[in-house]
User: Which sequence fits this backbone?
């Protein structure tokens, strides 16, 4: 999963969703884009269990009830 410079904040908010969907954050790799002098991150997420059958959800549910 490719992320910008707010990776820690996004990961704090999204860790439960990753786990709920059967994932586990294995590693965070960072690198710099020379063209724009900007740091970026790639999250390595391992699939550790099957995703519950209630996913994917219908199109309006994620907006009204996000996985937190």
Assistant:
């Amino acid at each position: 999963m490719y992320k910008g410079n707010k990776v820690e904040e996004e990961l704090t908010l999204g860790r439960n969703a990753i786990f709920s969907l059967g994932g586990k954050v294995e590693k965070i790799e960072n690198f710099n884009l020379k063209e724009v002098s900007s740091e970026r991150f790639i999250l390595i997420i391992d699939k550790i269990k099957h995703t519950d059958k209630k996913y994917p959800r219908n199109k309006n549910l994620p907006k009204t009830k996000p996985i937190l």
About this structure: Helices lie at 7-20, 61-64.
